[in-house]
Amino acid sequence: MPPIPTTMRRLLDDHDGLLLDAYGVLVDVSGPLPGAVELIELLEATAKPYAICSNDASRLPATYAARFARADLNIPAARIASAGMLLAGYFSRHAMEGARCAVLGTPDALAFVTAAGGEPVPLRQGMEIDALVVCDDEGFDFREALDLTLSAAVRAVSAGRPLQLVLPNPDILYPKCAGEFGFTAGGMACMIEAGLARRFPGLGLTFTRLGKPGAELLHFAHRQILGGLRADRLVMVGDQVETDIAAAAAAGLASALVDGISQWSHVQDPLHARAAQPAATSSGAWRPAAEPTYLLSSVTP
Ligand SMILES: [Mg+2]
User: Fold this and answer.
1) φ and ψ at 151, to 5 degrees?
2) Which of 27, 116, 128, 241 suits a disulfide with 262, CB 3.0-4.6 Å?
3) Which residues neighbour ligand 1 (ion) by CB within 5 Å?
4) Domain ranges, residue 176
5) Residues 94 and 166 in one domain
6) CA dist., res. 40 & res. 49, Å (int)
7) How do residues 50-99 score in pLDDT, each as one tens digit?
8) Is the pLDDT at 274 greater than 60, yes or no?
């Protein structure tokens, strides 16, 4: 069934709980997006259950809540689920207690790894690691850190040591402000994977992606924040088909796409995108990663 154009008001009427992506839905680097402040005020005033589901692995929930508050979004830390919070489960399932981890990310990202049982090691030449955890693009010298972590990964694989490659935030890019984009953790992981593939062809050394488009973050938020609500009464609101909408599909939840990184008119019609790039070719077999249940032009309630 093709996506149904709707309004936030109708989404709220028809569902018992909301899962909300943050970047591109509520905020961008410049501050709150149109309608976001009014939406959060309404959710809080009416005690409508909601959870923030962000691939961001660079901020602890309290840090995130403080940042939201600076954008006039009064979101309690207890309503925030981020991909960094999935590290604890991953480390536990893979018996990674005490693993020496090269962590790309902020001090909060290191705190996620430490809380999960890992031991962050200082990024330096010659470091030996058991795991490489790519959380974020901030908190270090981008180029130097990529060189050091790629080198440490090559040394570990060359020595035949097991190496865990963990990517809480698979996002390749994020919206900075109108018309501007930035690379983030997923883009860095792609570079490291490309380097490892060149050095070790055929080994298939790839990162385990924890956040969206996998279902785990949405299941985590449902269990931890929206416990008691039926899955068929929830809706995920996001701005990226490849992450938010695909994650909702993987989790078996309804979804609403708000125009942001993905614009449904472009996703639906590759010829539209091709018109802007005459050299590109469009395969007849091309399909969107997932189809949203609804289309939202704005989160304004
Ligand atoms: Mg987003």
Assistant:
1) -60, -45
2) 241
3) 21, 23-24, 239
4) 85-209
5) yes
6) 11
7) 999 999 999 999 999 999 999 999 999 999 999 999 999 999 999 999 99
8) no
Instruction: Count other Cβ atoms within 10 Å, centred on residue 1.
Output: 5
By CB atoms closer than 10 A (0-12, 13-18, 19+), residue 138 is middle
Structural tokens at position 234: 């929830």
- Encoding tokens for residue 181? 């984009």
What is this structure's pTM? 0.91
Number of domains in the chain: 2
What is the distance in angstroms between the CA of the first residue and the CA of the last residue of the chain? 25
Cα→Cα distances 266→208, 249, 261, 269, 272, Å: 29, 20, 10, 5, 6
- Cα–Cα dist 261/264, whole Å: 10
Distance, CA 206 to ligand 1 centroid (Å)? 23
User: What spacing in Å lies between the alpha carbon of 187 and ligand 1's midpoint?
Assistant: 15
Query: At 91, which CATH number?
Result: 3.40.50.1000
CA of 42 to the centre of ligand 1 (A): 21
Whether residue 165 contacts residue 208, with contact meaning beta carbons closer than 8 Å, is answered with: yes
Residue at which a domain ends, from 147, 180, 209: 209
Residue 207 clears pLDDT 60, i.e. is over it? yes
Report pLDDT for 280: 44
Residue 165 lies in a domain: yes
Is residue 27 within 8 A of residue 79, CB to CB? The reply is no
174 Cα–ligand 1 center, Å: 7
| Distance of alpha carbon 77 from alpha carbon 51, whole angstroms | 10
